[in-house]
Amino acid sequence: MIPNAVRSYRRSEELLDRALEVIPLGAQTFSKSLTQYPRGSAPFFVERAEGARMVDADGNEYVDFNNALCSVTLGHADPDVSAAVTEQIGKGTIFSLSSELEIEVAEAIVAAVPCAEKVRFGKNGSDATAGAIRAARAFTGRERVAVCGYHGWQDWYIGTTARAKGVPAATRELTHTFPYNDLPALERLLAAHPGEFAAVILEPMNVAWPVPGFLEGAAEATRRHGAVFVMDETITGFRYALGGAQELFGVTPDLCCLGKGLANGYPLAAVAGRADIMAEFEQVFFSFTMGGETLSLTAAKAAIAKGRRENVPAHLARIGQAVLDGVQALIERHGAGNFLGLAGHPSWSFLTIAEAPDATGFPLKTLFMQEVLARGILTLGTHNISFAHGDAEVAALLDVYDEVFPILAHARATGDIEARLRCEVLQPLFKVR
């Protein structure tokens, strides 16, 4: 345990100042930036990571429950993936022609994912979701899209959020949001624009479990209105089950989007689905110089094989359930149920923090971040489980929460939350879940 729960982040701070001179926000990803980590009480740069552990630029070690925003499913520097990639490096990374790896990984996805008949690769989840929407528009000859959840940075989606700056109004007007688990809202939306929707795209699950009939009803309503039903399984794919949430819940979409854990942190994403809709990719432009890059494909081939061989989703669910059970017991022990809660699937769960009286939840969220980081837990309030997490990592998390929850409860009760901060209060990025 760190004396007085204080760590030095001096080197990280120096690197951040240097980065801000040449990189907007000082980071390539909003979720790794000042918008999510409180300057003065958090690291911003990593030195190395292995398994479920990470070391920052100042030499501070953490148990990583962020796992690169859920993109690391097996664990950092997984030995099986690393060995396969090391071997492939000697053969080359990108060629003037396609490689057999493209076929092999596509075949592995088709074998694992219920909706997958054909597959196209991109590099980020945003590539996959944008590709799916473009194919759906081409297939239906329509333009409107209904969305539920988070679907990436491109104009067609991000225009519906508070981060819409730079998105043309005409583009924003073609995308409509509806709440998760609210089938009547989706029905009203589709009925309000008959014959105009190309697709309904949703995260099959994020914070909340689907209520009985929601996913089935959403699929039926979408198809009844002549639109394409798309599941964004960027996170849930290869995590909730080998075949993703569609396998777990028994609802097969027309198209799905994969990414994150597909290649255990290597940059690879995919659109997969019905052959007749996927045929649109022969005409619509969805083409990447790095689409067939072999290191990521090799990583995906090894990761999918290990996921099947070791039954990785079952391990994620077991460890994640231990986290949920342990955290819930701590919430009850410390009488924190009036402001702390839990949500999500065991493999991807959320510690929820309610707003304090006469204040938003962000001062308390900032205090939470400050205190757990100081004690060696890296999290944004989520528990993104990897195959490298075991009972020891769960115990470390629970030990820290056992110390931090009373601090949060006392600060909330006395109203001195901000007085306890060694940093500025975090500001919200945008809310989609």
N-to-C CA distance: 34 Å
> Mind describing the biggest β-sheet?
7 strands, mixed
Q: Spatial order of the strands in the main sheet?
A: 4-10-9-8-7-5-6
> Uncertain runs with pLDDT below 50, 5 residues or more?
none
Give me the Rg, rounded: 22 Å
**CATH fold-level name of the largest domain:** Aspartate Aminotransferase, domain 2
How many discrete domains?
2
- In terms of DSSP E residues, the strand content is 5-15%
Q: What does this 3D model show about the protein?
A:
The protein is an alpha/beta fold and 433 residues long. The chain folds into two domains: 3-65 and 312-420, Aspartate Aminotransferase, domain 1 (Alpha-Beta Complex), CATH 3.90.1150.10; 79-309, Aspartate Aminotransferase, domain 2. Helices cover 39% and strands 15% of the residues. It has helices at residues 10-22, 67-70, 79-89, 100-112, 125-140, 155-158, 169-172, 183-192, 214-224, 244-249, 275-278, 294-309, 312-333, 362-374, 391-414, and strands at residues 46-50, 53-56, 61-64, 118-122, 144-148, 175-177, 197-202, 228-233, 255-258, 269-273, 340-345, 348-353, 377-378, 382-384. The strands form three sheets. Strands 4-10-9-8-7-5-6 form a seven-stranded mixed β-sheet, with helices on both faces. Strand 11 (340-345) and strand 12 form a beta hairpin. Helix 14 crosses helix 15.
